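hiii, so i know i said id send this last week but things got crazy w the move. better late than never?? heres the sequnce for the chain we talked about at the cafe, plus the structure i predicted for it. fair warning i was half asleep when i ran it
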Amino acid sequence: MTLHLVQLGKRDVVAACNPTDLVASPTRYAMRIRLLLVVFLLPLVARAQSTEQVSKKYLEMDAALNYEGLRPLLADDFSFGDPTGEVFRADGSAMSVAGAEAFLELQKSWGLAEVDFDPDVSFAVGEYALHRGTYRARFDGADSWTEIPFVTIHRVSEGKMIERLDFGEYIQSFGLGDGFDDNTSWTEVIADQYLAAYTGGDIATQNVLMADDVVFQDPTAQVFGPPSGRLFEGKEALLTRRTQIYQNVTDFSFDASSRFYANHHAVYIGHVEYAAGGRWYRQPSVFVIEVRDQLVRRHWDFVDYSVGAVE
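okay and structure toks below
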């Protein structure tokens, strides 16, 4: 089918992402989404290429422990977070820091002597790049290497790294033992049940398993425009949004090639599969679910939406 594009403007962009159309006319909504993707494909590809280049350079400098080389790649207000790094903090809070200089000082304090990270899978979508694989590190004074199942997400804007978010399986990797994984068993049970409900479109079960103040975000979905990609706060708002989405996205599932559970966090690595607009998709993905007090408190999705429909 040939599409003739004439004067597609902001009104069409907003309309394409209008959830009211999603409910009222799924076919019309699907056609608008396809039109939107065609018109904005080249800018999105260009942005992803820039993101990929900066992120790749960052990984090279990081693996070389070249802190002077890292600094020009970081925006002054660069931020770093590692929710799974809570196991290294006495108060159990996520490891985080704001500011490029503060982050570099933090990284120097880790005592890294050598690093080897060759990701099994990498992808870039819009401002975001994701790399997953085994992070190998040798620390000062140690002869052996520590191998860590690892996911790192980079956000790039205007040629600079503005954010890095990590998830690692540190408990088993470092042999931390009792006291560090007191919540892991419950996290596994609740997160697995929640993931099944999420991919199965089971709103009732999600409602039971979510905390009232649950937070969800798929930042890689920002390429589709608002409200996709934004932070959803609160159970009611999130379930309302998902009820809309399930009317247009069917046969939703997650094929996990690997997973790990670390105290309050479950990390699922694999492919998301779904049908939308009469087409079938299978896209590399990472889902992260945070469980506290036996309820889902936070949920991140990271999906390679640049992978098109399966022919």
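btw The two ends are 16 Å apart (CA to CA). thought thatd interest u
miss u guys!!
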